[in-house]
């Protein structure tokens, strides 16, 4: 795997190579398919993660001898730039573990003062284990919504809604793969949208390709995180 420039992407001309994830965890799979195509993540993997990887059979594990504590190197950057808690190689079908997939629990270790590291768009809520949880969780949810709304109003936070039409994700992935394979726009549009006319004045086929490519790039370059909120 190391140093291998082949990211294991499908032949974009064959739709059968793009099975749609369904059921539990489907959005995580979709998010991963876009993230693993992002050049920034691939570069990050090669330069900052892969040197700390060991392989055992088909498994890719971190080299515990070279980690800082129990964390991956550049862990904070991995979380802040990509929203990833536990990385996967871009050539792997197994998704990375995204931060949005779970809620972190930091138990009190008995220290008088505890410090936790929060990302730019994170807040922390303290819950009392010796009190009923329902009322605490309601207050926590209210505080979360209030702070989220405040940051939206001040422009500190911009929520990106995921596209509801999941069937379009395969088209987006095929477009990304086609351009990476070096295919020409005219050929891509002809294969993906054969029923659309590409004549003056509408040029519907090329317009559809341009619009879908913009959407695909948005999802690839960070927008995939919006899929995890569905």
Summarize the structure in words.
The protein is mainly alpha-helical and 230 residues long. Among the domains are: 15-101, no CATH class; 167-229, no CATH class. The protein is built from seven helices and four strands; from the N terminus they run ααββαββαααα. The strands form two sheets. A two-stranded antiparallel ribbon has the order 1-2. It has a two-stranded antiparallel ribbon with strand order 3-4. A hairpin with a 2-residue loop joins strand 1 and strand 2. The longest helix has 22 residues, at 133-154.
Going across the biggest sheet, name each strand in turn. 1-2
Shape: elongated
Residues in helices, as a percent range? 25-40%
Structural class: mainly alpha
The helix/strand order is HHEEHEEHHHH
**What's the Cα radius of gyration?**
21 Å
What is the distance, rounded to the nearest whole angstrom, between the alpha carbons of the first and last residues?
Answer: 33 Å
Number of helices: 7
Which residue ranges are poorly predicted, with pLDDT under 50 across at least 5 consecutive positions? Answer: 57-61, 64-69
Strand content: 5-15%
What is the total tally of β strands?
4
For the sheet with most strands, the description reads: 2 strands, antiparallel
Chain-averaged pLDDT: 81
List the helices and strands and how they pair.
Elements: H1 26-35, H2 39-49, E1 53-56, E2 59-62, H3 75-82, E3 84-86, E4 97-98, H4 133-154, H5 167-180, H6 185-192, H7 204-220
Antiparallel strand pairs: 1-2, 3-4
Helix pairs in contact: 5-7, 6-7
